Amino acid sequence: MMRFQDRRRKRETEEEERTRKYRKKTSRMSWGVCLMGLALLFFYQSNAPSTAAKKTISTVSSAVSSTSAGSSSSVAKSEKADAAALLKAKLAADWRLILVSQQSPLPKDFTVVLTKRSDGFRVDARIEPELQQMISAAAKDGVTLKICSAYRSVSQQEGLYHPERYASGSPVSVQPAGDSEHHTGLALDFITSNYHTLDSGFAKTAAYTWLLKNSWKYGFVLRYPQNKEQTTGVIFEPWHYRYVGKTYAKEMTEKHLCLEEYRQALGI
């Protein structure tokens, strides 16, 4: 009997010991899980930005990008404006585009190097080669181009100018001294073998037809076209041609622009 009871107490003691160890083990595991959770939470809070922080970072990044883009755009606009101003100044200084009229008198400091042609007329030395090429080309086509007026000094212009003609304000032919582009050495008046008068009748000659079709190839344009009188302030002069250079002459002819209109289109 005693042996049975001893064995029973022994089993109960062993069972209690196993239960105690199991509880102790479970408790340790629970604490371990808690500690691990706390550690992970601390790590995340320390290293991961909050939602507010993320929004702040995003806002700052956007602002930086916007500022950078705005700065680049401003620089580009500034460079474009500088380039446009430089081009405008270059065009305004181009001798081929000089404008001399009653609204734009010849500059006081204007100078020109003239060359005397075999026919006795003087022109700007820079246009002589192309002028002669044009006259020779016309001759090959059976058309005679004769210069009857080229460079004129201010004193020569004074002798041609009649103030009373300007009283009405209507477009005229001869400009006041200092306001004629003949002073530049770039302007020419033509006649032909069978027509020697500077009037509208020249528009019916073969010379005029040839000039309209070919003069731009040599850098010359009809300076005072028909239906442009209110713009130029000068009557239609089918005999009067002006050197502007091949590039400008081509554009003016293609676009049907007089010099005033072309300069305005260029912004000068």
What name does the CATH topology of the largest domain carry? Answer: Muramoyl-pentapeptide Carboxypeptidase, domain 2
Order of helices and strands: HHEEHEHEHEHEHH
Oligomer: single chain
Measure the end-to-end span: 132 Å
CATH architectural arrangement of the largest domain: 2-Layer Sandwich
Number of strands: 6
Strand-pairing-aware structural class = alpha+beta
Q: What shape does the CA trace take?
A: rod-shaped
Rg to the nearest angstrom? 47 Å
Number of helices, counting only DSSP H or I runs of 4 residues or more: 8
Average residue-wise pLDDT: 81
Low-confidence stretches: none
Count of discrete structural domains: 2
| Largest sheet report | 4 strands, antiparallel
Q: Which range best describes the helical content: under 10%, 10-25%, 25-40%, 40-55%, 55-70% or over 70%?
A: 40-55%
Q: Describe the strand arrangement of the main beta sheet, using strand numbers.
A: 3-4-6-5
Strand content: 5-15%
List keywords for this structure.
single chain, two-stranded antiparallel ribbon, 268 residues, 52% helix, four-stranded antiparallel β-sheet, Muramoyl-pentapeptide Carboxypeptidase, domain 2, alpha+beta, 2 domains
Molecular structure report:
Residues 1-23 are annotated as: Disordered. By secondary structure, this protein is of the alpha+beta class. It folds into two domains: 2-70; 95-266, 2-Layer Sandwich (Muramoyl-pentapeptide Carboxypeptidase, domain 2), CATH 3.30.1380.10. The protein is built from eight helices and six strands; from the N terminus they run ααββαβαβαβαβαα. A four-stranded antiparallel sheet has the order 3-4-6-5. The chain has a two-stranded antiparallel ribbon with strand order 1-2. The chain is rod-shaped, with a radius of gyration of 47 Å. It starts with a helix and ends with a helix. 21% of the residues are buried. The model has no long low-confidence stretch (mean pLDDT 81).
